[in-house]
Amino acid sequence: MQATTDELRAVFLSRDIADFEIGSCGLAAPVPLAAMRLAQELHAPNLTLAMEGALNPRPRHLVDVPVDPEAHHEAEAILDLYDLFVNGERGIDFWFMAGIQIDRHGNLNLHRVGGTPERPAFRGPGIGNSSIAMTADRWYAYPGSHTPRTFVESVDFVTTTGTRCRFVVSPLAVLDFEAETHRMRLKHLMPGMTVEDVVAATGFKLLVPTELEPFPAPTDEELRVLREVVDTAGALRRAN
Amino acid sequence: MSLVEPGSSLALGGAVHANRPAAFVRELVRRGTGQLVLHASPGAGWDVDLLIACGLVRKTVVPMVTLGELGLAPSFRLAVETGEIEAAYTDAMSRTAAYLAAAYGHPFHLIGSLEGTNLVDDPELFDVLTDSDGNAHRAARAVSPDLCVLHVEEADEYGNVRHARGRVMDVLAARASRRTVVVADRLVSNRTVRAEPHRTTIPSQYVQVVVECPFGAHPTATGEYQADIEHLRLYAHAAEQRRRGDAAAFGTYLDRYVTGPSDELDYREAIGGEAVEQRLREELRASHD
């Protein structure tokens, strides 16, 4: 079976994780959780998962909500929110966020779109932990959709600033940021996508380098471990 | 229940689909105690959405309101987007700071991580303090809810609490609130607690009321039974229909599961009795085998 977009996203992110780092993620967890668990299985056995609720769990399948009791499987410790507060103030290595809007500098919005603060046109879910994205060495955006409505000129509410955003891994492309301006730049196209597709789906002027490296294909071993050990219930194989 | 009056502020325990004080929430709806200010952290779902749909909420100070894999919380969205309730724009770490301040009895707790976001814009939640060197520091204002309501797996008659699994914000919420009610799936003896003091997660010092209510977190999970996703899906569908203007399914839900049953024994029959309880226990056990 060919790799799905979510599998490609998880494998790409897992390769950016180093051994002995400390990472975490919030809700809508399947892609980031897969990336971290895959890294642990393949090249980062000493990676620490400081999840919301438990330390170093090994959930039987890729749960959506890391605070659910099934997500604590084989955890080494139950954590209080106070432990996350410490991590949020002092900083860990990396974190992941999806979001409902992202702008050219990686500023992310999970709170509201349109209208006024008192009466928004759309009220988003909000966020558990914004602090970790603000103080971690880096965070990764993994938006579920890439359209002019989600990739916008400027976000309506800054839930998290984009300063420490390293990669945006969307269903269409991998994007990074130009060093001097921290403007979002195309890095890799997902298989089957063209530069025109991505530019048309982006609501601001995207930096496009003259030469694009192809999307790094997953190895057979990465896909085998992902499917047989990490994503046993096929959460990343369901959509697309 | 007389601990809650119209306008009370409540800190609801657990997170998203886990350890929500569901039995307490159903009883609040039956009594119609309104104008509530809800705190819950880091995230709330069914409980906060239901109280809003029943018109009992004036304001939420909840970092995240979501039904998780079942999508956005429909009644929360509807009420905020129509201006019916006030919903603070916040996150869990600033709420942690606010609870820490209240637990210490201090007016503020510093939080340095949110500069540059719009999360610090609300002057009701934050202040800026200047130290003697002239440096400015963001500080979350203390929050001391009138009543903290937790659902846990075990407690003794004095209020010593033994969580079986996730604790999330419960430990801190109990220390920050003026009073704490613990609803427990079962009471254990004080002798049991004394034999294993390392298992106590919240000491009785912070707890004023204990109620035994087996399966009282349903439809959400505890460390001993799985969330009833089918029940939550039914709720999510009914609440979404209501958001779109058709309240029939929501009315049926209320009648069958909330206002219809006269008490929690009645409720447990309404959801399918022992068979359903057994299934949800087994589902959680299977995820840990």
List the topology elements.
The complex is a heterodimer of chains A (240) and B (289).
Chain A: H1 5-15, E1 22-24, H2 30-42, E2 48-49, E3 54-55, E4 77-78, H3 81-90, E5 94-97, E6 101-102, E7 108-109, E8 112-113, E9 122-123, H4 131-135, E10 138-141, E11 165-169, E12 173-177, E13 184-189, H5 195-200, H6 220-230, H7 235-238
Parallel strand pairs in A: 1-2, 1-5, 5-10, 10-11
Antiparallel strand pairs in A: 3-4, 6-7, 8-9, 11-12, 12-13
Chain B: E1 9-12, H1 22-31, E2 36-40, E3 43-44, H2 46-53, E4 57-61, E5 64-65, H3 74-81, E6 86-87, H4 92-104, E7 108-110, E8 126-130, E9 136-141, E10 147-155, E11 161-162, H5 170-176, E12 179-187, H6 190-195, E13 209-212, H7 229-243, H8 248-258, H9 264-270, H10 273-288
Parallel strand pairs in B: 1-2, 1-10, 2-4, 3-5, 4-6, 10-12, 12-13
Antiparallel strand pairs in B: 7-9, 8-9, 10-11
Helix pairs in contact in B: 2-3, 2-7, 3-7, 4-5, 7-8
